[in-house]
Amino acid sequence: MADQVLTKPAQVAAPKGLTWQPRIIGFLCYWCSYTGADMAGTARMKYPANVDIIRLMCSGRIDPELITSAFSHGADGVLVCGCHIGDCHYIAGNHRTMARMPLLKRILLDLGIEDERFRHEWVSAAEGEKFAEIVREMTEQVQRLGPLNHPQIMRDRGVGHGMDLKPWGE
Ligand code: FES
User: Fold this and answer.
1) What is the pLDDT of residues 74-91, one digit of tens each?
2) Residue 88 CA: which ligand 1 atom is closest?
3) Average pLDDT over residues 124-153
4) Three-state secondary structure of 71-127
5) How far is CA 37 from CA 5, 52, 92, 120, 153, in A?
6) Using CA atoms, how far apart are residues 144 and 166, in angstroms rounded to an integer?
7) What are the structural domain ranges in the chain?
8) Where does 20-157 sit in CATH, by number?
9) Is the CB of 83 under 6 A from ligand 1?
């Protein structure tokens, strides 16, 4: 799965004064959004090369754990794209996505991960320009927020592997 990264688009220079480049992981469904991203690439549309794309057969396959795992492994942002409602190749896969993503967003907020670091969109195979625009916007937003520093956030909140075990004598 991790080796399914599309060819990078033409690099766009970082806005003046912002040199740090965020790493964004994009989970895209194969039938619509991945084809839309591919279209943006083959049409040589310009958008930042900050999104590493992971192709999945359906957005309904995107387990929330994949997203929290991407953040805990160094992603500064995560993008989820699937077919428009009514277009899912597996009929109702994206209905599951539609139900899960808002819940996940609330959990991420609760974990201290800002709203702008996670985005969920419907992108069809013909919407290369829409995909490029989403990546432009999201890259700028995450760039403004700066690096995520997930271990620090987890330590501050006493969550999971970031938990400070000193009070228990470790
Ligand atoms: S096949 Fe694209 S969302 Fe299900």
Assistant:
1) 999 999 999 999 999 999
2) 4
3) 94
4) HHCCCCEEEEEECCCCCCCCCCHHHHHHHHHHHHHHHHHHCCCCHHHEEEEECCCCC
5) 11, 11, 22, 15, 32
6) 34
7) 20-157
8) 3.40.50
9) yes
Contact 7, 34 (CB under 8 A): no
Residue 121 neighbours by CB under 8 Å, 6+ apart:
33, 79, 80, 81, 130, 134
Phi, psi (degrees; rounded to nearest 5) at 74: 115, 0
In the reported structure, the alpha carbon of residue 115 is separated from the centroid of ligand 1 by a whole-number distance in angstroms of: 24
Q: What single letter denotes the amino acid at residue 81?
A: C
Compute the distance from residue 100 Cα to the ligand 1 centre, in Å: 14
Best residue among 29, 54, 56, 122 to mutate for probing ligand 1, ranked by most atoms within 8 Å of CB: 29
Kindly state the tokens that stand for 46. Answer: 């310009």
Distance CA 96, CA 111 (A): 22
Per-residue pLDDT reduced to its tens digit, 87-134: 999 999 999 999 999 999 999 998 899 999 999 999 999 999 999 999
Mean of the per-residue pLDDT values of the chain: 87
